[in-house]
Design a protein that fits this description.
single chain, alpha/beta, 2 domains, 8 helices, about 30% helix, globular, transferase, Alpha/beta_knot_MTases
Length: about 230
């Protein structure tokens, strides 16, 4: 089936020994098929079309952007893109520095979402967030430990009400959101645990936590649509 689809699109098909496929995929699972493709770069926000924040009736549109600050693990990045695409996030923006590039591992972890869902980048996260706040966007961060947040209100994600275009900012696997980024947030969202947590097991994987937060927010979009 793959060979027929490739031929229909003019893509050459080579049949190779498994050891050569193993080498092409750098030892990662390939299920018997590899595709050689050009690198996929981040898109520049400077070239992105600016969305309309209001509909024809003057109502705020329920836009949702996901911003990733220094996500470095390709499996996490792929899982984040997969969740964002599935749940209806309108745009994903990643920081240029200290972030994982769009690699084959990211693509596979995203289950192909990376190939059909543009990912943008910014080299000035603080400036980007300031500009969006001035345009009327709400900026909300996410943290695993609310005690680490200073000078920004922290609420449970289940209490958050989505009533304007929002940007959800997710921090790196090890450090979370930088202090500079936290201070750009109107509010910070936290996920309440279901039990008293043992020391050292007090947080979620970043992609799992983001999926929970996005589902909590996006479910409000569906209710409003009804």
């Amino acid at each position: 089936e793959f060979a027929l689809q490739a031929a229909a699109r003019g893509v050459p098909v080579l049949r190779l020994p498994r050891r050569e496929l193993d080498a092409l995929s750098r030892g990662r699972p390939h299920q018997g098929v590899c595709l050689e493709a050009a690198p996929l770069p981040f898109r520049s926000l400077r070239d992105a079309e600016e969305p309309r924040l209001r509909d024809g009736h003057g109502e705020s549109r329920q836009l949702l952007w996901l911003v990733l600050e220094h996500i470095q693990d390709p499996m996490n990045l792929g899982a984040l893109l997969r969740s964002a695409y599935f749940l209806g996030v309108d745009r994903v923006v990643a920081t240029d520095s200290n972030s994982c590039p769009l690699t084959p591992i990211v693509s596979k972890a995203s289950a192909g979402a990376m190939e059909v869902f543009d990912v943008y980048s910014t080299d000035d996260l603080q400036g980007f967030l300031k500009a969006k706040k001035a345009e009327g966007w709400e900026v909300v961060g996410a943290v695993s430990n609310p005690e680490d947040v200073e000078d920004v209100p922290v609420i449970s994600c289940s209490e958050f009400r989505w009533d304007k275009p929002i940007i959800v900012v997710i921090g790196s696997e090890g450090e979370g959101l930088s202090l500079e980024t936290q201070l750009q947030c109107h509010r910070v969202l936290a996920i309440a645990p279901g039990r008293a947590l043992h020391p050292g097991i007090d947080s979620l994987n970043v992609s799992v936590a983001t999926g929970i937060l996005l589902h909590s927010i996006c479910s409000q979009r569906r209710r409003h649509g009804d």
